[in-house]
Amino acid sequence: MIIDCHTHLNRYSLSDPPTLRERYARLQGEMDENGVGYALVLSSYVVNDDRPSADELLELVDGNPRLGIVAGVDVPRLGADQIGRLSGLLRSGRIRALKLYPGYQPFFLTDSEVHPVYRLAAEFGVPVMIHTGDTYNPSARIKHAHPLQVDDLAVDFRDVTFIICHLGNPWFTDAMQVIYKNENVFGDISGFTLGEFQPRYERLALGKVNETAAFINDPCKLMFGTDWPISDIGSYVRFAERLEITTEEREGLMWRNAARVFGLGVEGADGRRV
Ligand SMILES: [Zn+2]
C-alpha cells in the first residue's frame, strides 16, 4: 500500500498535457504503474488556465475513492471572500487539508494575516500543509520558506496539525528538530528532485532522509509524497525503497501516517484501521 500525499494537476511546462482531463488520466496511470493506491492533489495559490481551483479539482475527481483534494490558500488575497469560500469547502467535508505556499508568495507563516487559516484548520480539524525550502521558481524569496517558522505555529496553535512539506530542503536539520520537538508537526519527503533522481543527488537526499528518520526516531512522523508531476513517481518509489529505515518506519512513511493524519479511513493489509 502506498499513499502519495503530495501531487499536483497543474500544467507546469509545455510538455505537460494541456487539458486537466489528460493530466488527471496521466496521474491515474502513474498511480497504477507504481502501486500508489491513494493520492492527494494539492491546488495552487493561484487559479488560471494552467492551475485549477480546488472546486474544479473536486468536480474532476468526484466519486473517485483513490483521490483526495487539498485546497491551496492565496495568502496575499486572504479576505472575507476567500475565508468564506474555504470555510464552505471545508464544511462540505470534501477537503483533506489546506496548503500554504510561503516562498512562492511573500509572507511569513507567523504574520497575523495568516492566523485565520490556522483557526479554520482548528475549527474543521484538517491539517495545514506548508511549502518549505527550495522553490521551483527563481523569483521566489526563500527566506519566507524556512521551516524553523513552523515551530512558532506549532506552539501557538496546539490544536492544529502542521506538515512541513519537502522537509525544508535543504534546511533538513531545522525541519527535523521542529518535527521531533512538536507533537503536532509532521513532514513529507516530496519534491526533492526535478523528474527522476540523478545518482549523486539521490545519495545526498537518501542520507538526509535517513538522518532525519534516525534523529526523529518516531515511526509516526514522516509521510511519502512525490510532488508529481515535478518529481517522477516511479523514481520516488525506488528512492523510498532505498531508505535505511525500520519496517515500522517504512509502513508509517508509505501509508499509515498519511491515512491517520489526513483521516483517510484507509485500512491496512493487516486489517487494522488507522
Ligand atoms: Zn508541491
TrEMBL record:
Residues 3-264 form the Amidohydrolase-related domain. Pfam families: Amidohydro_2. GO terms for molecular function: carboxy-lyase activity; hydrolase activity. InterPro entries: ACMSD, Amidohydro-rel, Metal_Hydrolase. Keywords: Lyase. Signal peptide: none annotated. SUPFAM superfamilies: Metallo-dependent hydrolases. PANTHER family: 2-AMINO-3-CARBOXYLMUCONATE-6-SEMIALDEHYDE DECARBOXYLASE, CATALYTIC_ HYDROLASE. This is Amidohydrolase-related domain-containing protein. It comes from Longimicrobium terrae.
